Amino acid sequence: MRKCSALMIFLFSFLLLALQNLEVVSAVGCAGNFFNASSIFRQNRDDIFSTLADKVIANGGFYNASLGNSSNRVYALALCQRGYDQQACSNCVQSAFRGIQTNCPDRMDSFTWDKDVEDNVSCLVRASNPSTFGKLELRPAIIYPSPLSIETSKNMTIFEQEWDGMVNGTVEAATDTETSSVSKYFGARKAEFTEFPNVYMLMQCTPDITSQDCKTCLRECVTLFKNQFWGRQGGEVNRPSCFFRWDFYTFHGAFGNVTRVPAPPRPPAQEKGSSGTEKKGRSTRSWVIIAVFVVLTLINILVFIGLIKFFAGRRRSNNGNNIGSAEYSEADGQFMLRFNLSMILTATDDFSSENKLGQGGFGTVHKGILPNGQEIAVKRLAKGSGQGDIEFKNEVSLLTRLQHRNLVKLLGFCSEGDEEILIYELVHNSSLDHFIFDEERRSLLTWEVRFRIIEGIARGLLYLHEDSQLKIIHRDLKASNILLDAEMNPKVADFGTARLFEPDETRAETRRIAGTRGYMAPEYLNHGQISAKSDVYSFGVMLLEMICGERNNSFQGEGLAAYAWKRWVEGKPEIIIDPLLTERPINEIIKLIQIGLLCVQENAVKRPTMSSVIVWFGSETTIIPLPKAPAMSGSQCQSEDGTMSMSNVFTELSSR
């Protein structure tokens, strides 16, 4: 039985690896952040989809538009391939967006090149947030190879040379910039080959990208096909920005009359017996297809049975033993990646001092490298810490169910003996406090960069409060718990003290005050009252820190919020702006000071939601309310419960 299970796991892993290497995904490419079924984003997407078919026809075969505000804004694009009548184009676009609604019901980024064999039409529909207009998008890729292979008796060397030459000619035709803006980036060719029937090839890019980007996209499609399916009798590769297809028979009106028939029979080597040879060839190919189908069906059945036995056995043995380097462990209905301790020891060189990145109240953080080359940050909790156990379980249970580009990604965990370890993605640019509060590094934070960081943090909080499947209050939001990736994109970290709310729950009370003074809302610090507005308060303090470049506790006796409020009342809010922001859009910065003061108002009810904050960020016409006085709480900035901050996690990275 163990050998059988091991075989099933091997087959399943092999299939997953093969699919990953082939970049094969479903007919609809889904990516980006998640959204709720009842969200405004979904309604906006459905509304803009409902008009796409008419709009793309009215605009000559290509149309792009947007609908909504800020995080709920939907950017849509539709394109019909050249040469089709209007009704066929309309039908194709409608079919395409129905496919997206069905296959990507909760993902913000999606695309599909839809095809209708009856109407001989192909079209692209894309939806995204943020905008992808004018940007080259290569992933995900969708591949449709022909199930038939080219006869090995043919001279493939000559065929490949002629095929590559045809590719070069079609790419040049498709990237010719002299055609009009709507119908440009299209190339269709028919070529005669030495030992083969005619070959037909079609390439097309969306007209919003540059000619060079179009060429890059098409070359990537060709390379992917040759690397994975060379030797097949045709196929196609779809990417969000381009389309490539070739075959031995006509499949598009640009080639002349569409025949919709298989490849023409190859000329016989000699007249005698040609009919029998042709029938034998067709019969052989049929049996090959049937054999492949049967084998794949049997493998799927065996893998399915093996997985059932595998997970059933693990449940009976209380999650069982680790298999290989990592396994999935079931806890609270969630599947989480569990790493072997031996694997972690190898990755971190036995937690060597050379790999140590930082140390906090609950343990150390080390850099590690997995066998596949991926760099990781390993957070090793101190042994025997009861509060550390709570943080460990809380962070694992929450982060395994959250996915957002502005949240730190938990890759897995390890819990063996007295070791409790969390494994994160490695974020190379340290934490925000090592930039905004450092005299030299702060100069790297232009206003454009600071605004992007502020907006990214706001989007991460909006996801936690409203857009994720869970409703989570962070409770310890501050600059040291914001990590910055290589492109200075923020990622909210440290969910050890986070609180999970029920969907209809708006406020809770606790006796355990966990967080950092100066960032905690007064109702939470004084009365233990927790709500989303608690995080809004912390966000407001951090926003003001980003504008002035000073820590909250630098303003002794009153705190940054009180200092900023006094300058606001005096009519001189620009006084608090960081002098290093020499090229500063003063009106925009003052608008953010106003938003920050609204977030730190003493009355929690008066504070805005994060969705309102996002709308204000992106609007120049929305009237923003005037703030009231902030809470005059102390500004001493120390951890109330010793919570391990991520501030020391990546301290040394930026200097290495």
Automatic annotation (TrEMBL):
Supply the gene name. Answer: LOC108841227
N-terminal signal peptide: 1-27
Its catalytic activity? L-threonyl-[protein] + ATP = O-phospho-L-threonyl-[protein] + ADP + H(+); L-seryl-[protein] + ATP = O-phospho-L-seryl-[protein] + ADP + H(+)
- Which Pfam families would you find in this protein's record? Pkinase (PF00069), Stress-antifung (PF01657)
Cite the Gnk2-homologous domain residue spans from the record: 23-132, 144-251
Give the record's keywords alphabetically.
ATP-binding, Glycoprotein, Kinase, Membrane, Nucleotide-binding, Phosphoprotein, Receptor, Repeat, Serine/threonine-protein kinase, Signal, Transferase, Transmembrane, Transmembrane helix
Biological process (GO) annotations held by this record are: response to abscisic acid
Q: Where does ATP bind?
A: K379
Example GO molecular function term? protein serine/threonine kinase activity
Highest taxon of the lineage: Eukaryota
GO cellular component term of the entry, any: plasma membrane
What sequence ranges are listed for the domain Protein kinase? 351-617
The portions of this protein that span the membrane are: 287-308
The name under which this protein is listed is: Cysteine-rich receptor-like protein kinase 39
Organism this protein belongs to: Raphanus sativus (Radish)
What ranges does the record give for the region Disordered, renumbered to this chain?
A: 260-280
Q: Which InterPro entries match?
A: GNK2, GNK2_sf, Kinase-like_dom_sf, Prot_kinase_dom, Protein_kinase_ATP_BS, Ser/Thr_kinase_AS
Q: Where in the cell is it found?
A: Membrane
Membrane topology note: Single-pass membrane protein
